[in-house]
Amino acid sequence: xxxxNPAAPEKPLTREERLALRLRENLRRRKAQARAMDxxxxxxxxx
Length: 47
Known about the structure:
Elements: H1 15-40
């Protein structure tokens, strides 16, 4: 069961919109990883 409104059909996302969405999700995930590493006291790998 979804909570989307069936009366308003959703327009498919463009390639740029999909990429932007993935980029934002990836950034959030990486920031959360960095905060977790800071809290645990580990040093990030040197590249």
